[in-house]
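Hello,

Our lab assistant flagged a job as stuck in the queue for most of the afternoon. It eventually completed. Since we weren't sure the result was trustworthy after the delay, we are filing this so someone can double-check. Below is the sequence as submitted and the structure that was eventually returned. Let us know if re-running is recommended.
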Amino acid sequence: MAKLLSKDFKKRVLVTTVPPIAYLLLKLLFFTCKKKLCFKGKRDIDKPAVIAFWHGELVMAILGYIEFRKGVEIDSMISDHSDGEMIARVIKLFGGGVVRGSSTKGGIKALKGAFKTLELKRDLGITPDGPKGPRHSVAEGIVLIARKKGVPVVTINCKPSSYWQFDSWDRFVLPKPFSTLNLYIGEPLYLDKNISVEEAQKIIQERLLENAV
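-- returned structure --
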């Protein structure tokens, strides 16, 4: 019992202390970097959209989104796993909202939350290969959500000129200070209901792989 309590206590400490520290460090890092927005197609989107980015580019892609989609609020879909709580808290510190759940845990709750976000005219951020991969795969949830609500999928890639890459399943990317963040914003993609879910998944995957790290 003591060992269990000790483990839970350590987890609570991490969840409480890590997010504000990560927020300050990321904000400082983003400030030092030069941002270069690269658009494919029109810049303005007249509807709420599903914003797709790879799990390994999650942090900088979200910050890049803030730079690109000024004035529009976003909720990011974050898993109910323990690591997701820390990510959720960091996102909230940056002013974003979260939808908890994923394709592997809390799927129904996540879908309901996603639909509500789009109904409220907020964008929805999704990492289609999260929370556990395989890396650069696309789960069907993003297709089902975009089709159900008739909103476009907009892909974002963050390709730093200089970066560290971690030895994690998603090969997480962290830009080095004073690097240039090349932020590739894809053209709004409306998923034709006449094509299969598998074909739609492949189209999104190809878009995201064009400028992946």
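-- support follow-up --
The delay was a queue issue, not a problem with the job. The result is valid. The CA atoms of residues 48 and 121 lie 5 Å apart. The two ends are 45 Å apart (CA to CA).
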